[in-house]
Design brief:
Order of helices and strands: EEHEEEEH
Strand order of the largest sheet: 1-2
Number of helices: 2
Largest sheet: 2 strands, antiparallel
Structural class: alpha+beta
Length: 94
């Protein structure tokens, strides 16, 4: 069983688990401990990732908070801890 403080009691599928500091965790809590859960979907990031606004995202989940267009790191504006494309930012806050 997962040793998360959330006490998820998630069984280990196929008997495999993720080790973090000598304790067994389910995949979700392992990535939560390592800070590699997507801020957009809350699922583990195992491939490419975008780090922006002190958070990590799957590339497809880093989107404008208004129009939902996919963003790239460095090509967005931030307001109230949310990312916006330049067009939406100017429309809403300009």
């Amino acid at each position: 069983m997962c040793k998360s403080v959330e006490d998820c009691r998630e069984p280990f599928h196929g008997g495999s688990f993720f080790d973090h500091e000598g304790l067994p965790y389910c995949e979700t809590h392992y990535h939560a401990k390592r800070g590699s859960l997507c801020a957009g979907c809350s699922k583990p990031i195992t491939g490419r990732c975008i780090t922006a606004m002190f958070k990590k995202f799957h590339p497809e989940h880093f989107v404008c908070a208004f129009c939902l267009k996919q963003l790239n790191k460095g090509t967005f504006k931030e307001q109230n801890d949310k990312p916006y494309c330049h067009q939406c930012f100017d429309k809403l806050f300009g």
